[in-house]
Amino acid sequence: MFQFPQHMKRVFKDPNRQSQFEQNGYVIFDFYNEEEIKYLSKLYADLHPKDEVGFYPSTFSKDKEYRQKTDDEIKRIGGRTMSNVLVDYKVVCGSFIVKTPGPESVMGVHQDMTLVDETEFTGINIWCPLVDLTDANGVLKLIPKSHRISPTYRGSSIPNIYDNVHEGILTKATSVYLKSGQAIAFDQSIIHCSPPNVSDHKRVVTNIFFSHKDVRFRTAFYPKETHPDKIELFEQDITFMTNFDQFGQNIFKRPEIGTSLGFVEYDFPILTIEDIENLNPESSGLLSWIKKLFS
Q: What are phi and psi of 218, to 5 degrees?
């Protein structure tokens, strides 16, 4: 089982922001100005597929031209603020994440898929709505400090760690009421979710994935039938997010791009009361929260 690095590689210019990110798993800051919000809103209106429904990231689209154009423009527009806020970073992918009105737009409790070698690097999303977030349109919810509750490999084929505490997470998660143009940068391993959009309008968000400039990209797959106690790792290049057609087809099968790095042992942790009680308090900020949850 891998371990998180003792110290995160610095990517935020402001040391206080870096410290806050490492401690809580996220930071919030202003990202787009009014002109940029208008441009990106129009870009979405001009480009998006007409048949999208429910929860729909642009990376899921089967239209590679749409994925690439979205990637290029969101990274370009976001570059102004990123150059002011970040240091020693590498931008990987820009995308739209959309919730159309309806119950199918719910995004359940999850951690984002493994995209970097987390023994050394941290995958970070800069998630920025183009509209104000409300309880009605699918506000982002997360568990502060949950990014370090346990090292995990994550992907659609891999069982998650929190089924036993799923309902508790839904009731105890912190709602992040971002304003249009305000961003949250969060560690991909933080536990988060969002309720369905029950408003009358789409909730459009941009997401920019980045990491340290020296990052090594990898994804993880669970070969349940042949290696039930292992995870297969795949080395990927920086174009993975726009070139991975399986997002729009079958994300549960073995990756068709990338180079296999072989198999690693994995014990498939499950978050239980006993596990929490045995956690090292220095490695988990969720200890007090979980104890209250089950008291």
A: -155, 155
Chain mean position to CA 164 = 21
Q: Which residue has the tokens 């429910």?
A: 54
Q: How far is it, in rounded angstroms, from Cα 234 to Cα 230? A: 13
Q: How far apart are CA 233 and CA 245, in angstroms?
A: 18
What is the rounded CA–CA span in Å between residue 187 and residue 14? 17
Q: What is the pLDDT of residues 84-121, one digit of tens each?
A: 999 999 999 999 999 999 999 999 989 999 999 999 99
Task: Name the token pair of 277.
Answer: 């009680």
Percent of the chain whose pLDDT exceeds 70: 92
CA 83 to chain centre: 21
The model's pTM: 0.90
Distance, CA of 149 to CA of 261 (rounded, Å): 26
The two three-digit tokens of residue 77, written as one number? 């527009």
Residue that the structure tokens 């441009």 belong to: 39
What digits encode the pLDDT tens for the residues 118-162? 999 999 999 999 999 999 999 999 988 889 888 999 999 999 988
**3-state SS track over the chain:** CCCCCCCCCCCECCHHHHHHHHHHCEEEEECCCHHHHHHHHHHHHHHCCCCCCCEEEHHHCCCHHHHHHHHHHHHHHHHHHHHHHECCEEEEEEEEEEECCEHHHCEEEECCCCCECCCCCCCEEEEEECCCCCCCCCCEEECCCHHHCCCCCCCCCCCCCCHHHHHHHHHHCEEECCCCCEEEEEECCCCEEECCECCCCCEEEEEEEEEECCCCEEEEECCCCCCCCEEEEEEECCCHHHHCHHHHCCCCCCCCCCEEEEEEECCCCCCCHHHHHCCCHHHCCCHHHHHHHCC
Rounded distance between C-alpha atoms, residue 174 and residue 192, angstroms: 9
